[in-house]
From TrEMBL, chain A:
GO terms for cellular component: plasma membrane. The keyword GTP-binding does not apply. This is ABC transporter ATP-binding protein. Residues 3-238, 254-498 form the ABC transporter domain.
UniProtKB/TrEMBL annotation, chain B:
The chain crosses the membrane at residues 57-77, 89-111, 131-152, 159-177, 183-205, 217-241, 265-285, 306-328, 340-359, 366-384, 396-416. It comes from the Bacteria. It comes from Serinibacter arcticus. InterPro entries: ABC_transp_permease. The lineage of its organism: Bacteria, Bacillati, Actinomycetota, Actinomycetes, Micrococcales. It is a multi-pass membrane protein. Signal peptide: none annotated. This is Nucleoside ABC transporter, permease protein 1.
């Protein structure tokens, strides 16, 4: 299918989300749309998928202008979409999900045999196998994503929209996805690939359209360098790496000893995890989402009760201490999901910025809030953290996700802290601000805080971690030095120990791993400023000896 | 409106530009944490009520206007004179319309006169009596309305106003006749007794919710029944039973809320107390640490917990404070208006209070205004019935219409052709320090 967008404009009230977007996707092309959060990518895709009606402009398919009044129309016209949040019914089987909405019917009943056949045929065409009778909830995310792709293709999609498809995948899984995308493209299916990750884009796409502030600001080919793409996307030059000095770890601040957390069914979700984090260093915890990282951080905060083991802060066991006491003893905590755990959406920015400091001076005196302090605090932090808002009195729920995240980080970093535990600290934040937030986290480290960063984004793990712990299935697979290769980490995320992962990684580079190597080479050549790897290198050396001991400790636990 | 059809993806309340957040953890979806505590995700009812309560004041006003118009239609339809005129509608349409206008305008005039100022009354005293009646009736409605509103802002549906009013009344009465104390001291003690009675009754629901997760709606409704039968029994006991059957001994003079005006006015200090408490509740919710915590728990319990606020403690406290306010409503009835306890002391105060809080958007000022409106409707309805023969029930119908329209904001919006909320999106203007990327994260 040849898709052409002509001057697509979409306004929400006075706000123009898409402003005269023109672009062409050729048949069999993998076309990437690159843009920051809030640049208008999702709006454009929702317009294309018939969820929004454009205020101006035309969608032209194979030379014919079309008008969609709903996703049904878009599907009939051959457009399929794999949403970032999968639209699958967890308790249904693969086959049931795939045919949902257009069930093959025989004798008044759903023809499940035919449904299974559809699943088998489509997945074979794509070069993988899925059990049509497996329940969605039992499948790993990577496979669920394939079910979504099968679902779209079984509806004869000739153009497939993939919205941030790699957000939940390991590098190895990403490789497999890229393989599927290439097969599809070779068979003539056009693919629109939406992302804000520069490295993937260069690895997979044929052509790139960059969107900023609702407008097309340029197009590029995969041969463009990452920094070229980044500056187009952000509108100014950004440094992609974190400029940080090697860690100078001092005394241990946090010690987690043989920690076990069980879920409601008694299944261990954190299984015998031990590690230490010292003042002045960042431990990055990598892993696919849902492998115990959340429970680990919640056990440190005290909202999860460990079944056994202990958390020790500055030599003092935290057992029996409530959240309040832990926060008061210098713990700063950035939850993984800001909207449910980090902010109160209906509260103003002013109020959210003191949410976990309430009840003590200077926020409140004698049971009353010090409104003047609250306001001054908000004015200062909004400015310092560049929270984009018309007023500090605006409800936080009306801010964009990135700005909400800044509010959470501003709050947590605005008080003296000895331990920072941050999950997905920059999720949803624009590239320009990620740089700033990473710098802030590093400066907390340099001021002597112990820092634990939990992130599913390997880019972030690599940028921040002085040491990297990898979790899989609730267990600590191992702790490796900060400069470890993406391939090794990716394999460890599937539960393979560090030694074996290194061997295997040496045998086979993933596309992203190769892209890393290329980027390093580029960074050395193009950028004057030292890039991530150049800075990371000494850090790696200094922590090698440390990690040798911790790695073996990690393995002992298993 | 730029989107004529409902987008399937982002809900209208959601920022249209907000990219869908990548939250893919399985544990997120299940919605329970591993310790087995159910994650408090607001259900449909809760989010719906929240929307209802957060819609604009204008909408409230328009809902009242609509209710009055619709009430007018009912008055006209049921008026005998109009029915007669309708018989020769085509012969003499003018007399039909005259009759219709007469019926509606007279009824509403009587309603107004019965509620605010009776211009037809013989004496000045009788002319201004209606407004004092309105204030008297409004007093317990305001107090109990504050109770429901406060609990709601702490995330709790306090349906138990009725039971809390009764318990407050019982305890206040008991202290009122059972003790013999000097003035002021006796009254203060009786009022405290009323508050404690209500607080105790509500705290039962609070503790059960915090400890076992029992839903406060069910518990408070059941406690209402317990209280209703409890008071039936209490007034017959040796300790309480007074001269007339079904009433208690009268409250001692020193424990009575003093009248604000001489006889025959019934208005008493309880009304001032209600206004003062409205101000106190405002301060508590908006300016105090405790109110901040209560609102945080009410609005997002998970975030509150993560921020070190004890959700259980706040639940119990919110219920206790709410119960105390409702208990004071009961105390104000026995110590002020009535002077003794009857089984029907609570009337329908506890239930009307829910409506009052709903109409008042759970805010103290709104609750006061809504309480006054309901007081006025109740007071005016009586005169309307005697003067124009329009049944008192019309007042209930009016109240119901108001609530109905308030519960259906889209309906009112459609009738008055108002824009949808969120259609006009505030564009974040850059307060940024980096001019180049201004608005990039819009």
């Amino acid at each position: 299918m040849r898709l052409e967008l002509r001057g697509i404009t979409k306004r929400f009230g006075t706000f123009t989300a898409n402003d005269g977007i023109d672009m062409v996707v050729e048949p069999g092309e993998i076309h990437a749309i690159l843009g920051e959060n809030g640049a208008g990518k999702s709006t454009l895709m929702n317009t294309l998928y018939g969820l929004y009606e454009p205020d101006a402009g035309q969608i032209v398919i194979d030379g014919e202008p079309v008008v969609f009044s709903g996703p049904g129309d878009a599907m009939r016209a051959g457009i399929g979409m794999v949403h970032q949040h999968f639209m699958l019914v967890p308790v249904f089987t693969v086959a049931e999900n795939v045919v949902l909405g257009q069930e093959p019917v025989g004798k008044g009943l759903i023809d499940l045999r035919r449904a299974r056949q559809i699943v088998r045929e489509t997945s074979e065409m794509l070069g993988f196998a899925i059990d049509p009778d497996a329940k969605i909830e039992d499948l790993p995310v990577g496979v669920q994503q394939r079910v979504e792709i099968v679902k779209a293709l079984s509806r004869n999609a000739k153009l497939l929209i993939l919205d941030e498809p790699t957000a939940v995948l390991t590098p190895q899984e990403t490789d497999e996805l890229i393989e599927i995308m290439r097969r599809l493209a070779a068979a003539g299916t056009s693919i629109l690939f939406i992302t804000h990750k520069l490295r993937e884009i260069r690895a997979v796409s044929d052509s790139i359209t960059i969107i900023r502030l609702g407008k097309v600001v340029g197009s590029a080919t995969p041969s463009a360098t990452e920094s070229e793409l980044a500056s187009l996307m952000v509108g100014r030059s950004v440094s992609l790496g974190v400029a940080k000095e090697p860690a100078q770890p001092r005394e241990d601040v946090l010690e987690v000893r043989n920690l076990v957390v069980r879920d409601t069914h008694g299944v261990p979700v954190v299984n015998d995890v031990s590690f230490t984090v010292a003042s002045g260093e960042i431990l990055a915890v990598a892993g696919v989402q849902g492998n115990g990282q959340t429970e680990l951080t919640e056990a440190i905060l005290g909202i999860q009760k460990p079944a056994s083991g202990s958390v020790v802060l500055r030599g003092e066991s935290l057992e029996g201490k409530g959240v309040r006491e832990r926060l008061d003893s210098g713990l700063a905590y950035v939850p993984e999901d800001r909207s449910t755990d980090g902010v109160v959406g209906e509260f103003s920015i002013v109020e959210n910025l003191v949410l976990d400091r309430i009840g003590a001076a200077p926020v409140s005196r004698g049971g009353a809030l010090d409104m003047r302090f609250l306001r001054r605090n908000a004015d200062e932090l909004v400015k310092e953290f560049d929270v984009r808002t018309t007023s500090v009195d605006r409800a936080v729920g009306t801010l964009s996700g990135g700005n909400q995240q800044k509010v959470v980080l501003a709050r947590e970093l605005s008080r003296p802290l000895s331990l920072l535990v941050a999950s997905q600290p920059t999720r949803g934040v624009d590239v320009g601000s990620i740089e700033f937030l990473h710098d802030r986290i590093v400066s907390e480290r340099d001021k002597g805080a112990a820092v634990v960063i939990v992130s599913t984004e390997l880019d972030e793990v690599l940028a921040l971690g002085d040491r990297i712990a990898v979790m899989c299935g609730g267990e600590l697979v191992g702790i490796v030095p900060g400069g470890e290769s993406r391939d090794v980490l990716g394999l460890m995320m599937t539960g393979i120990g560090p030694e074996e992962a290194r061997q295997r990684a040496a045998e086979h580079h993933t596309l992203l791993g190769e892209a890393d190597l290329e980027a390093e080479a580029e960074a050395g050549a193009v950028l004057d400023a030292p890039a991530a790897d150049a800075v990371d290198a000494p850090a790696t050396e200094s922590s090698t000896t440390r990690s040798a001991t911790t790695t073996s400790a990690g393995e002992e636990n298993r | 409106m730029s989107t004529p059809k409902e987008p399937l993806g982002p809900t209208p309340a959601q920022d249209p530009l907000e990219p869908v957040e990548p939250q893919s953890a399985a544990d997120d979806e299940i919605g329970t944490t591993a310790t087995g505590q159910p994650a408090r995700t607001p259900g449909f009812g809760e989010t719906y009520l929240r929307e209802v309560l957060s819609s604009s004041w204008l909408l409230t006003l328009l809902a009242i206007v609509l209710a009055v118009l619709l009430g007018g239609v009912l008055i006209i339809a049921t008026d005998p004179a109009v029915q007669e005129a309708a018989g020769y509608l085509f012969a003499r349409p003018s007399s039909f319309f005259t009759a219709a206008w007469e019926a509606a305008s007279q009824a509403y005039l009587a309603l107004f006169q019965g509620a605010i100022y009776d211009s037809q009354a013989a004496t000045f005293t009788r002319a201004i009596r209606p407004i004092t009646e309105t204030l008297t009736i409004a007093t317990p409605l305001i107090l109990a309305g504050l109770s429901v509103g406060l609990a709601f802002r702490a995330g709790l549906f306090n349906i138990g106003g009725q039971g809390q009013v009764i318990l407050g009344a019982v305890l206040a009465t008991w202290i009122g006749f059972g003790l013999d104390l000097p003035p002021v001291v006796h009254l203060v003690l009786a009022l405290i007794g009323g508050a404690v009675g209500g607080a105790f009754w509500a705290a039962i629901a609070g503790v059960l919710k915090a400890r076992t997760g029992a839903h406060e709606v069910i518990v408070t409704i059941m406690l209402n029944n317990v209280a209703a039968y409890l008071v039936l029994w209490v007034v017959t006991t040796q300790i309480f039973a007074g001269g007339t059957s079904g009433t208690s001994k009268p409250v001692g003079e020193n424990a009575r809320l003093p009248a604000l005006l001489p006889e025959p006015f019934r208005l008493h200090l309880g009304f001032v107390l209600a206004l003062v408490l409205a101000a106190v509740v405002w301060w508590l919710m908006e300016r105090s640490t405790l109110g901040f915590k209560l609102r945080a728990v009410g609005s997002n319990a998970r975030a509150a917990r993560t921020a070190g606020i004890s959700v259980g403690a706040m639940t119990v406290l919110a219920m206790a404070i709410a119960g105390g306010l409702a208990g004071l409503a009961g105390a104000s009835q026995v110590l002020g208006t009535e002077g003794y306890l009857t089984a029907s002391v609570a009337g329908t105060i506890g239930f009307d209070a829910i409506t009052v809080a709903l109409l008042g958007r759970s805010k103290p000022l709104g609750t006061v205004l809504a309480g006054l409106l309901f007081g006025a409707l109740a007071a005016g309805g009586r005169l309307m019935q005697t003067r124009t023969g329009t049944p008192l029930d019309l007042v209930l119908v009016l109240q119901s219409f108001i609530v109905l329209f308030i519960a259906a904001p889209p309906l009112v919006r459609t009738i008055w052709r108002l824009p949808k909320p969120g259609a006009r999106r505030e564009k974040p203007s850059p307060t940024s320090t980096t001019p180049v990327t201004a608005g990039a994260d819009a």
